[in-house]
Amino acid sequence: MSSPPRLSRTLLFLAAPVLLVVGLWIRLAIAESPVFLAAQEKAAGEKRVPIVDVLRGNRREVLVTIGARMAENVSYYVLTAFILVYVTTGLHLPKSVGLTAVLIGSAVHFVTIPMWGALSDRVGRRPVYLFGALGMAVWSFAFFALLNTKSSPVIVLAATIGLVLHGAMYGPQAAFFAEQFPTRVRYTGLSVGGQLSSIAAGAVAPLVAVALFQSWHSTVPVSLYVVAMCVLTVLALSFARETRGSSLRVETPEERSVDVLA
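Above: the chain's sequence. Below: its structure in C-alpha coordinate form.
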Protein backbone atom coordinates (compact mmCIF):
# COMPACT_ATOMS: atom_id res chain seq x y z
CA MET A 1 0.00 0.00 0.00
CA SER A 2 1.39 3.41 -0.99
CA SER A 3 2.31 5.92 1.67
CA PRO A 4 0.20 9.13 1.74
CA PRO A 5 2.99 11.35 0.30
CA ARG A 6 3.66 8.92 -2.57
CA LEU A 7 -0.07 8.61 -3.27
CA SER A 8 -0.38 12.42 -3.28
CA ARG A 9 2.45 12.76 -5.80
CA THR A 10 0.85 10.12 -8.01
CA LEU A 11 -2.52 11.88 -7.96
CA LEU A 12 -0.89 15.22 -8.78
CA PHE A 13 1.00 13.63 -11.68
CA LEU A 14 -2.21 12.12 -13.07
CA ALA A 15 -4.07 15.41 -12.68
CA ALA A 16 -1.47 17.36 -14.69
CA PRO A 17 -2.76 16.37 -18.17
CA VAL A 18 -6.31 17.24 -17.11
CA LEU A 19 -5.20 20.68 -15.93
CA LEU A 20 -3.29 21.18 -19.18
CA VAL A 21 -6.41 20.45 -21.23
CA VAL A 22 -8.56 22.75 -19.07
CA GLY A 23 -5.98 25.54 -19.33
CA LEU A 24 -5.78 25.16 -23.11
CA TRP A 25 -9.58 25.22 -23.39
CA ILE A 26 -9.78 28.40 -21.31
CA ARG A 27 -7.14 30.08 -23.44
CA LEU A 28 -8.75 29.16 -26.77
CA ALA A 29 -12.46 29.34 -25.91
CA ILE A 30 -12.75 32.50 -23.82
CA ALA A 31 -12.63 35.78 -25.73
CA GLU A 32 -10.75 38.87 -24.64
CA SER A 33 -12.71 41.36 -22.55
CA PRO A 34 -14.55 44.18 -24.33
CA VAL A 35 -12.41 46.68 -22.43
CA PHE A 36 -9.20 45.16 -23.80
CA LEU A 37 -10.58 44.90 -27.34
CA ALA A 38 -11.61 48.57 -27.24
CA ALA A 39 -8.15 49.60 -26.03
CA GLN A 40 -6.55 47.41 -28.70
CA GLU A 41 -8.64 49.04 -31.42
CA LYS A 42 -7.83 52.50 -30.08
CA ALA A 43 -4.11 51.75 -30.13
CA ALA A 44 -4.16 50.28 -33.63
CA GLY A 45 -1.56 51.96 -35.78
CA GLU A 46 0.30 53.49 -32.85
CA LYS A 47 3.95 52.53 -32.62
CA ARG A 48 4.27 52.13 -28.86
CA VAL A 49 6.29 49.77 -26.71
CA PRO A 50 4.16 48.78 -23.68
CA ILE A 51 7.12 48.17 -21.35
CA VAL A 52 8.43 51.67 -22.08
CA ASP A 53 5.00 53.13 -21.29
CA VAL A 54 4.88 51.16 -18.03
CA LEU A 55 8.32 52.23 -16.86
CA ARG A 56 7.66 55.81 -17.92
CA GLY A 57 4.15 56.32 -16.57
CA ASN A 58 3.42 53.54 -14.09
CA ARG A 59 6.55 53.16 -12.00
CA ARG A 60 4.61 53.56 -8.76
CA GLU A 61 2.20 50.78 -9.70
CA VAL A 62 5.09 48.46 -10.60
CA LEU A 63 6.80 49.16 -7.28
CA VAL A 64 3.52 48.63 -5.41
CA THR A 65 3.10 45.27 -7.13
CA ILE A 66 6.65 44.21 -6.28
CA GLY A 67 6.41 45.37 -2.67
CA ALA A 68 2.98 43.89 -2.05
CA ARG A 69 4.14 40.48 -3.22
CA MET A 70 7.18 40.32 -0.94
CA ALA A 71 5.34 39.04 2.13
CA GLU A 72 3.02 36.85 0.07
CA ASN A 73 5.87 35.17 -1.81
CA VAL A 74 8.32 34.71 1.05
CA SER A 75 5.75 33.50 3.57
CA TYR A 76 4.39 30.92 1.12
CA TYR A 77 7.76 29.28 0.62
CA VAL A 78 8.52 29.32 4.33
CA LEU A 79 5.16 27.67 5.02
CA THR A 80 5.39 25.05 2.29
CA ALA A 81 9.10 24.48 1.58
CA PHE A 82 11.17 25.49 4.59
CA ILE A 83 8.78 23.62 6.88
CA LEU A 84 10.04 20.37 5.32
CA VAL A 85 13.65 21.29 6.08
CA TYR A 86 12.87 22.29 9.65
CA VAL A 87 10.68 19.30 10.43
CA THR A 88 13.34 16.85 9.25
CA THR A 89 16.64 18.51 10.21
CA GLY A 90 15.53 20.73 13.09
CA LEU A 91 12.93 18.55 14.78
CA HIS A 92 14.17 15.18 13.47
CA LEU A 93 10.67 14.08 12.53
CA PRO A 94 9.71 12.05 9.45
CA LYS A 95 9.34 14.10 6.29
CA SER A 96 5.80 12.74 5.95
CA VAL A 97 4.77 14.86 8.97
CA GLY A 98 5.64 18.05 7.10
CA LEU A 99 4.21 16.83 3.81
CA THR A 100 0.91 15.91 5.45
CA ALA A 101 0.70 19.32 7.11
CA VAL A 102 1.35 21.08 3.79
CA LEU A 103 -1.17 18.87 1.97
CA ILE A 104 -3.98 19.48 4.46
CA GLY A 105 -3.12 23.17 4.77
CA SER A 106 -3.12 23.53 0.98
CA ALA A 107 -6.57 21.94 0.73
CA VAL A 108 -7.95 24.51 3.18
CA HIS A 109 -5.97 27.21 1.40
CA PHE A 110 -7.61 26.25 -1.90
CA VAL A 111 -11.08 26.72 -0.40
CA THR A 112 -10.39 29.98 1.43
CA ILE A 113 -8.62 31.88 -1.37
CA PRO A 114 -11.86 32.70 -3.26
CA MET A 115 -13.51 33.58 0.06
CA TRP A 116 -10.85 36.20 0.73
CA GLY A 117 -11.30 37.45 -2.84
CA ALA A 118 -15.05 37.76 -2.33
CA LEU A 119 -14.50 39.59 0.95
CA SER A 120 -12.23 42.08 -0.83
CA ASP A 121 -15.12 42.78 -3.22
CA ARG A 122 -17.17 43.84 -0.21
CA VAL A 123 -14.76 45.66 2.10
CA GLY A 124 -11.90 46.59 -0.23
CA ARG A 125 -8.68 45.07 -1.53
CA ARG A 126 -6.27 46.86 0.78
CA PRO A 127 -7.93 45.99 4.12
CA VAL A 128 -7.98 42.26 3.30
CA TYR A 129 -4.43 42.30 1.97
CA LEU A 130 -3.26 44.30 4.98
CA PHE A 131 -4.89 41.82 7.35
CA GLY A 132 -2.98 39.00 5.69
CA ALA A 133 0.36 40.82 5.87
CA LEU A 134 -0.01 41.85 9.52
CA GLY A 135 -1.37 38.44 10.47
CA MET A 136 1.56 36.74 8.79
CA ALA A 137 4.03 38.93 10.66
CA VAL A 138 2.57 37.74 13.96
CA TRP A 139 2.13 34.14 12.82
CA SER A 140 5.76 33.84 11.72
CA PHE A 141 6.68 33.41 15.39
CA ALA A 142 3.65 31.36 16.46
CA PHE A 143 4.21 29.05 13.48
CA PHE A 144 7.56 27.78 14.71
CA ALA A 145 6.42 27.66 18.32
CA LEU A 146 3.68 25.25 17.27
CA LEU A 147 6.07 23.21 15.12
CA ASN A 148 8.35 22.84 18.14
CA THR A 149 5.66 20.86 19.97
CA LYS A 150 6.48 17.98 17.58
CA SER A 151 2.79 17.06 17.63
CA SER A 152 1.52 16.10 14.18
CA PRO A 153 -1.98 17.62 14.64
CA VAL A 154 -0.47 20.85 15.98
CA ILE A 155 1.96 21.01 13.06
CA VAL A 156 -0.98 20.60 10.68
CA LEU A 157 -2.77 23.44 12.51
CA ALA A 158 0.31 25.68 12.25
CA ALA A 159 0.62 25.17 8.49
CA THR A 160 -3.12 25.52 7.90
CA ILE A 161 -3.53 28.80 9.78
CA GLY A 162 -0.42 30.16 8.08
CA LEU A 163 -1.78 29.32 4.63
CA VAL A 164 -5.19 30.79 5.48
CA LEU A 165 -3.45 34.07 6.37
CA HIS A 166 -1.44 33.81 3.16
CA GLY A 167 -4.73 33.45 1.28
CA ALA A 168 -5.81 36.85 2.58
CA MET A 169 -3.01 38.30 0.47
CA TYR A 170 -3.30 35.93 -2.47
CA GLY A 171 -7.11 36.06 -2.79
CA PRO A 172 -7.48 39.75 -3.73
CA GLN A 173 -4.11 39.92 -5.46
CA ALA A 174 -5.08 39.35 -9.10
CA ALA A 175 -7.90 41.91 -9.11
CA PHE A 176 -6.01 44.36 -6.90
CA PHE A 177 -2.90 44.45 -9.08
CA ALA A 178 -4.80 44.44 -12.37
CA GLU A 179 -6.88 47.40 -11.25
CA GLN A 180 -3.73 49.41 -10.52
CA PHE A 181 -2.81 49.65 -14.22
CA PRO A 182 -4.62 51.23 -17.20
CA THR A 183 -5.92 48.79 -19.80
CA ARG A 184 -3.34 49.53 -22.49
CA VAL A 185 -0.42 48.45 -20.26
CA ARG A 186 -2.18 46.17 -17.77
CA TYR A 187 -0.70 42.89 -18.99
CA THR A 188 2.80 44.32 -19.25
CA GLY A 189 2.61 46.04 -15.88
CA LEU A 190 1.43 42.88 -14.15
CA SER A 191 4.12 40.82 -15.86
CA VAL A 192 6.95 43.18 -14.96
CA GLY A 193 5.88 43.66 -11.36
CA GLY A 194 4.94 40.03 -10.82
CA GLN A 195 8.07 38.51 -12.30
CA LEU A 196 10.49 40.92 -10.63
CA SER A 197 8.89 40.22 -7.26
CA SER A 198 9.09 36.48 -7.88
CA ILE A 199 12.83 36.81 -8.50
CA ALA A 200 13.44 39.12 -5.55
CA ALA A 201 11.27 37.22 -3.08
CA GLY A 202 10.05 33.76 -4.02
CA ALA A 203 13.12 32.54 -5.89
CA VAL A 204 15.47 33.10 -2.97
CA ALA A 205 13.14 32.66 0.01
CA PRO A 206 13.86 28.95 0.69
CA LEU A 207 17.61 29.52 0.29
CA VAL A 208 17.60 32.53 2.61
CA ALA A 209 15.50 30.72 5.22
CA VAL A 210 17.78 27.68 5.21
CA ALA A 211 20.91 29.85 5.38
CA LEU A 212 19.55 31.81 8.34
CA PHE A 213 18.58 28.64 10.18
CA GLN A 214 21.92 26.97 9.57
CA SER A 215 23.88 30.08 10.56
CA TRP A 216 22.02 30.84 13.77
CA HIS A 217 20.64 27.39 14.67
CA SER A 218 17.37 29.14 15.47
CA THR A 219 14.13 29.95 13.71
CA VAL A 220 14.01 33.48 15.13
CA PRO A 221 16.03 34.94 12.21
CA VAL A 222 13.67 33.17 9.79
CA SER A 223 10.67 34.74 11.53
CA LEU A 224 12.37 38.15 11.45
CA TYR A 225 12.99 37.66 7.72
CA VAL A 226 9.27 37.09 7.18
CA VAL A 227 8.44 40.11 9.35
CA ALA A 228 10.80 42.30 7.30
CA MET A 229 9.03 41.25 4.12
CA CYS A 230 5.67 41.98 5.77
CA VAL A 231 6.89 45.48 6.62
CA LEU A 232 7.82 46.04 2.96
CA THR A 233 4.38 44.84 1.91
CA VAL A 234 2.60 47.13 4.38
CA LEU A 235 4.72 50.03 3.12
CA ALA A 236 3.81 49.20 -0.49
CA LEU A 237 0.12 49.02 0.42
CA SER A 238 0.31 52.50 1.92
CA PHE A 239 1.15 53.80 -1.59
CA ALA A 240 -1.46 51.67 -3.37
CA ARG A 241 -4.85 52.99 -4.38
CA GLU A 242 -7.94 51.22 -3.13
CA THR A 243 -9.49 49.90 -6.35
CA ARG A 244 -12.65 48.10 -5.23
CA GLY A 245 -15.50 49.20 -7.46
CA SER A 246 -13.27 51.04 -9.90
CA SER A 247 -13.94 50.81 -13.62
CA LEU A 248 -11.41 49.13 -15.89
CA ARG A 249 -12.56 51.36 -18.74
CA VAL A 250 -10.88 54.51 -17.46
CA GLU A 251 -7.22 55.05 -18.26
CA THR A 252 -5.62 57.46 -15.80
CA PRO A 253 -5.00 57.11 -12.05
CA GLU A 254 -6.98 60.28 -11.42
CA GLU A 255 -9.98 58.96 -13.32
CA ARG A 256 -9.82 55.66 -11.44
CA SER A 257 -9.68 57.46 -8.09
CA VAL A 258 -12.76 59.55 -8.99
CA ASP A 259 -14.53 56.43 -10.20
CA VAL A 260 -13.98 54.72 -6.83
CA LEU A 261 -15.38 57.70 -4.95
CA ALA A 262 -18.40 58.03 -7.25
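The chain is about 80% helix and 0% strand.
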